[in-house]
Amino acid sequence: MSGPIDATHPTAALAGAATLAHLLGRVATIDPRLAGYRGPMDARPMQLAELLDFHPDDGVIRLHDQRVVILSAAAMGLLRKELIDTFGLATTRRLLLRFGFADGYHDAIGLRDRGAWADPMEGLRTGAVVHALEGIVRSRVRAVAFDAATGRFSAEIEWRDSYEAEQHVHQYGATESPVCWSLTGYISGFASACFEREIYFRELSCAGQGRPLCTVVGRDAAQWGAELETFRDDFQGRGLGQEVERLRAAVQRRLQAVAKRERAVEKRERELDLLRERVARHATSKHFIARSEAMRDVLELAARVAPIDTTVLVYGESGTGKEFIVRMIHDQSPRAEEPFVSVNCAALTETLLESELFGHVRGAFTGATRDKAGLFEVAGNGTIFLDEIGEMAPALQAKLLRALQEREIRRVGGERTIRVNARVVAATNRDLRAAVAKGTFREDLYFRLAAFIITVPPLRDRREDIPALVHSFVQRTAGRLKKDVKTVSAEAMTALMAYDWPGNVRELEHAIERAVILSHGTSVTLRELPPEVLARKRSPGTGGPLSLRTQERDLIRRALERHDGNRKRAAAALNISTVTLWRKMREYGIEA
């Protein structure tokens, strides 16, 4: 028996029984009902002592001078799976056929030399008994015939409880072809040794196919005819050693290819790390709603100025999405792989903001225990975003102007100048021209910052974006809160369209979040909206509230004009169906 083998293998079962018998001080004899074969040849019960030489104290078990070990069937199943996953079914099948053939052949030679049978026919049946003792499979010889004069041999054997089929089904499920490969090899090698001629067995049906038992047939080489060469190639071929060497070379080539790929991946890793943040921001930008012509113009301006290395000033009320525009400019610029740093000029005092922008040296002021680089240095060749630039103190404006003009800064308390190369993009919700006129903002700084101005319109001036924004916020908020809210009622949408939204997109998002939280069904209704939305307040100086019908009619007209009368595209822009659009057009007397 070639080792190692699993606990269902003969050696393992016999060795375990022998060791247990040794420990209990009993005679180790296999029960004749399980192991003995009594037939025409008058075989006697097989005794473990006749088969095994075991030294439990030394940890050595031998079967006819070959050392064997005990392994679990599950472990052998995993090894079998590893072979299949690595080398494929065809190669693994040939390997296990050859392994089984060598195993069976050596077992038969060893048992024959110990006088375990009187003739080859008894030897074949003894092999079936040994297989059962091994725990590999229960064998029953249905029919066997051997003509010593002509050398013709044929046999039909059935197997039950094949460990190999059991493990294959456990790992892969039922298969189309028989899978007891090592067992088929074993019986072929055992029979060849018993009858001293080439004998090959083939499995016709298998428990691995979902059958109740496995069936194999065996014949001598001459009877296989044209199939003989196929059997010889499967069972002998280039030899097990050559097959292992071939597979080892294949594995080595695969490992070399993997190593080469890993080196390429490692080489690109740094670039990928720099790009990940940019890609993530671009993915997020796809959620930005821009259905209105005004907002599309803003995005086009941002895309055009992004590649040009100039300062940009973004105007817009709070909550309109100024920071998104600034990030878009950075992401589409040649500086995209460099840092993006931002600071809110209204959130810090003058002293702290100066230190944040330009840095400081140790001892420059109380608490300055070490040198600190400013954001201009941190940004490097990237972009620095100055939010709420209109709130910056006049003294600090002069230092910022020098940084923009001379491309150099000086840390607070420092004596040497530091060259900087960051691109400056600023944003404000204040009218800087009016601030210049009042003397609260430097005119020269204004013109330096305002080399390219982008004005983000308030939500009330781009009401076409409201339906799409509402549906997007409902979907995202419902998913985050795990609520089954999917739609907004027509009345609620009309109220949302009528409101002026002084807080712009941010206020709309909060209003939808509140409505989703309060909603009891799958749709947001009027009663879930904030009170100020229901009151349909309008901004001062707009001439009082417009009727909902008037606003709805105007929205439909603008949508149709923008899409050249195309109802399908206009309905999509308004987030309504073409049927609803057609009905509204008839109601308001609108021609396409």
Quick tags:
five-stranded parallel sheet; Muramoyl-pentapeptide Carboxypeptidase, domain 2; 20 strands; 592 residues; elongated; alpha/beta; Rossmann fold; 23 helices; four-stranded antiparallel sheet
What features would you describe in this structure?
The protein has 592 residues and is an alpha/beta fold. It folds into three domains: 5-237, Muramoyl-pentapeptide Carboxypeptidase, domain 2; 287-457, Rossmann fold, CATH 3.40.50.300; 462-588, Helicase, Ruva Protein, domain 3 (Orthogonal Bundle), CATH 1.10.8.60. Helix content is 50%, strand content 15%. The strands form seven sheets. It has a five-stranded parallel β-sheet with strand order 11-14-17-10-18, with helices on both faces. Helix 3 (73-87) packs across helix 6 and helix 9 (240-285) packs across helix 11. The longest helix has 46 residues, at 240-285. The chain is elongated, with a radius of gyration of 43 Å. The N and C termini lie far apart (90 Å). 35% of the residues are buried. The model is unreliable at 1-44 and 537-546 (pLDDT under 50).
